[in-house]
Amino acid sequence: MKNIQFPKRTYSEWQHAAVKAIKGKPFEKTLKTSTIEDITLEPLYTKNMLDQLGSYVPAQVGAIQHGKYQPSWLVAQEVMAESAEQYLTLVKDDILRGNETVVYTGFGKFDWTDEQLSELAELIIEKPLYFKLTSDDQDILRVFDFVAPEQLAHVQGVVFSEEAVKAPENVRTQLVDTIPIHHAGGTAVHELGVALSILSERMAESDFSETAKNTWIRFAVDTQFFQEIAKLRAFRVLWQAFSSAFGEEAPMIPLFTETSVRSYSKLDPYVNLLRAGNSTFAAVLGGTDAHTVHPHDFLTKPDLSSRRIARNVQLVIKEEAHVSHVVDPSAGSYFVETLTKEYVEAGWNYFLEIEQAGGYSEVIKSGWLTDDIQAKWVDRENNTATRQQSLIGTNIYANPQEPVRDSKIGDSHLEYMTAKRLATPFENLRAQSKVVNLKSAIILLEPVKNIKAQVDFVSGFLAVGGIEPLVSSHLATAKEINQFLANEAIDYGVLCGSKEAVEAVVTGLDTKASIDLAGRYPKEQLSEWAQFGINETLYSGKHMTTKLDKILALGKEAF
């Protein structure tokens, strides 16, 4: 095998073969993909493409590796508790089971005793802390008073607080938070540009070195795997460029990440495990310093089991993938390096746009940023509604019999209550289907073996809205169809069959039911058939939420 050599091929040869494989379809439209940020993803990345970037790539890799504290990252899983006593018990247990950070989220105002704070002080001497506090939950900060002066140098970590706080020297308290932008529907470019703009405002008001020394940043990581890797890497490059603009050497800034809830769904929640694994691995390859995995049932009510599984997502990656031994695992990848550069350029240009519009505070006040983010969110929703983006178990491969779970996000996670999620419209449809009495049917104009793909598509389309249609036997004539619809008291039906089979029966339809066709038909044809009760068509690429909402409106309210 060592003597076997594969023939070398050029990009043009590969492109020629690719065009042949897609049978004459346009190469650009078929094989190139545009991201939500309007960045084009190539079907193939080569060494030549990377070589064209010249000395930029080594400089880019150097900036990324210089900004990373260590090859590994901290497992920073949240601990859910109802009292200070319970919190201490759980956090100690979590540390024994692999958690590497003392994470405290504002659960409500706990009454901390001196003894409990003394116990907590012992923990934060040994492990980095990650405190997320609300304005009425600051009492935990008294823990620093219980750390011996000679031990204060060992206390390190970050504090996220709505109010200014005093903390030991190695605890950073100034957060650059891009997660609100992410929750509002922002893209990776929005997040990068906003991060720089926030930093710009802060640095203009204070000493650069002192502010940088007290600053940390937080990103949410979604399921667009390679884009999210490139986003995190791009920030480190942008931070170096930003520091250079101030005439300063770029100090290291801790980069904290968490799994995005944007793609999480209450429907088929175990799929959230796959989403969590995807985004966590992206965060790791992108160079996170500390990461939090939200449990798969985060939107309803996490329990000890789901929290353990979430923690193990990170532990499995650490133990099995060995990426914790490498500072920048994705360095040198033709795809990732090229994509990182494109996000660097797009993020910097967006930062300049914000600055020209008056800076971060001004674009928030004027609504300029909100409008820009909303436009991209509408694009995301449309992509999901037309299945250009799949949410397994939600907009595709849905189980209509699955119960719709109520959201039970607690007070400690209020920031997620308003987070925009792609699954929300589909969850609303499923909830609506549970209170509507709709009798629906798939009408077979040919034997099912001849049209199975069509029947499966229609069944899957309706299942997304929680609709379980009755499937008829083979009905070859309009009379048989009319009789079936009347006998079964059908409110909504879909005719499945070839165009010839449809043409043979459509002019004889006489029913009160609303009828659609499976497949694409010319508008002129549908307009002509409207007099026989034909309304619309179901086909791949149709806007699902709009259509399913119309279908469910045909039903009667169930009591």
TrEMBL record:
InterPro entries: Cbl-dep_enz_cat (IPR016176), MeMalonylCoA_mutase_a/b_cat (IPR006099). Transmembrane segments: none annotated. Signal peptide: none annotated. Pfam families: MM_CoA_mutase. Residues 170-424 form the Methylmalonyl-CoA mutase alpha/beta chain catalytic domain. This is Methylmalonyl-CoA mutase. It comes from Planococcus faecalis.
